[in-house]
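Lab notebook page, bench 4
Experiment: in silico fold of construct C2
Operator: M.H.
Input chain length: 152 residues
Purpose: comparison with the prior construct
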Amino acid sequence: MPRNEIAPGAPALDIILRADGTTIRPNQITSSAEAEAIQTELVQSIIEIEEQLEADGTGERPRDVSWRRRANAVLRRKKFHRQIVQRRIAELRKVERQIEQGEAENLVTAPKNARRRAFIAAAEELLEPKMLGEIWKRAKAMRPAAFAEVEL
């Protein structure tokens, strides 16, 4: 089996176990606030595990080796999940910024577009259809890019 493939039946590494016992995948996180809450949970659990490991090493009677091995494995996984969530936060913040900028641009262009539509409506009322057709032809000749068909 190639090194970068996951063995059949192996646990998925991107499934994050939350403090309340539920699981979530990074692509199911829909807002940066939700991702930040999950990151806070992960950081708290990392701190708790590290404290337990530290206390185990200083105690009179240390716990068995298998407990320590499992705790270290969980600690590594939580740190891995924290990195995944940090990346997801960055992705979501970028999208949220783009949405905010788009809405800000709409606030600026919406009044201009409304004025343009009002102007066109008034011109259609006042001008003869032939004259209006000539104006549209001239506008298309002057700025053909504005009249280009856009595929979505």
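Observations: The beta strands are 16-17, 23-24. The chain has a mean pLDDT of 83.
Next step: discuss at group meeting.
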